[in-house]
Amino acid sequence: MESPVPYGADHINSNPLLADGSDFPCKQRDNVYKLIKQNVMPVGQNQTLSFRGQATHGGGTCQVSLTTDKQPTKNSVWKVINTIEGGCPSTNPGNIGDDPTGYGASKFEFAIPQQIPSGDYTLAWTWFNKIGNREMYMNCAPITVTGGSKKHKHKHRRHGSATQAAALVRKRADAMASLPNMFVANIGNGCSTAESGTVLAIPQQNLGDVVQHFGSDRLTPPVGSCAQGQAAVPAPARPDAGSAPTASIASAPSTIVTPSPSSPPADTSVPAPVTAQPQAPATPPSISQVPAPPAPAGTTSGSCSTPGKSLCSPDGKGIGTCDQTMHVIFAPAPPGTKCDNTLGVLVGA
Q1: Measured between alpha carbons, how far is 73 from 88 in angstroms, rounded to an integer?
Q2: pTM of this prediction?
Q3: I need a labelling partner for 238 at 20 to 30 A (CA). Which of 220, 246, 315, 327 fits?
């Protein structure tokens, strides 16, 4: 993520979060919360989400979330303010290039909801890639929200600044409570995105009020134990797996927008999201409890030995990811590409 300017932008990399979740949130590392720029965001005003880097992995699904914590931890609560299903950070069927500092990814717009009180927050961008290993990318940025709802100035004056501060904390928590929790997967929490080549359909309880759709891919639900909080309002219908893609649903109670991503270069030094990490199930399901998903028409499947590993079909015409049942479904490689059996990634045909 290039904009908003993330914490530690001078030493950030484009790697995903570790598969065991040990660096969640915000890609924990030395000086992870080094302040480069405090991003100021008036409520209701369009902000730009842009990226640096060209390993866009066929796009995927992204979310923008907030937490009131200035230095988030695993216990921080992240609340979704924008979801982008498909085409994020690019609608290109593969990578847009091989320059880790290059441009060419799409730019998107989002806005801070009017209900968010003024103050300092951490914003997160999270991304679930379409092609390759089943991963979660995340970058975090410091922001100051202005023009938001304000507390009563004189209500607690007699009780001193400590009570005023406590009242503001409660107000911020109440304002964000109506927002859904950020979706989290692929980091050892029992929830995973489906096989490589599919675009994630964010579970409805994590979808949020503002949803953008790009590209023509059908959306596929995650697999595993993925219950992560309840939505404040019924979530809108959208192009889930098995249905044709739709641009927007006018009758939905939430706001679905389908603007086209702007063409100017953006960066994708991939990562940046927001929401409290959901609790892992007390007793994770055993492999024998997790049924292997059926293979879609036109694909092949097989057995495998390393869950999460990206694999090629024997003929190199398909790519898939080994799931928790030691089963892999190979989705057809996009036109003009083939799967490199040595690397387990798509390359030009």
Answers
A1: 26
A2: 0.66
A3: 327
Residue 75 tokens, joined:
């216990």
Inter-residue contact 264 to 107 (CB < 8 Å): yes
Residue in the block written with tokens 């690019």: 90
Residue 273 · residue 125 · CB < 8 Å: yes
Task: Report the distance separating Cα 66 and Cα 204, nearest Å.
Answer: 18
Q: How many CA atoms lie within 13 A of 4 on its CB side?
A: 32
The residue with greater pLDDT, 280 or 35, is 35
pLDDT score, position 345: 64
Q: For 119-178, what is the HEC assignment?
A: EEEEEEEEEEECCCCCCCEEEEEEEEEECCCCCCCCCCHHHCHHHHHHHHHHHHHHHHHC
What phi and psi values does residue 164 have, to the nearest 5 degrees? Answer: -60, -45
Top mean pLDDT of 159-163, 239-243, 319-323 is at 319-323
Arithmetic mean of pLDDT, 302-311: 74
> From the CB of residue 3, how many other CB atoms can be counted at a distance below 10 Å?
18
CB 141 within 8 A of CB 38: no
CA–CA distances in Å: residue 191 to residues 210, 231, 295, 315 = 23, 18, 19, 30
User: How does residue 78 score in pLDDT terms, banded at 50, 70 and 90?
Assistant: very high
| Type of residue numbered 142 | P
Question: Phi/psi at 175 (nearest 5 deg)?
Answer: -65, -35
Say whether 44 sits in a helix, a strand or coil: coil
Q: How many CB atoms lie within 10 A of CB 130?
A: 28
Q: Which amino acid is at 264?
A: P
Using left for φ > 0, alpha for ψ between -120 and 50, and beta otherwise, residue 283 falls in beta
DSSP string, 180-244: PBPP--SSSSSEE--STT-EE---GGG--SEEEE-SSPPEE--EES------SSPPPP--BTTS-
* Beta-bridge partners for 137: 127
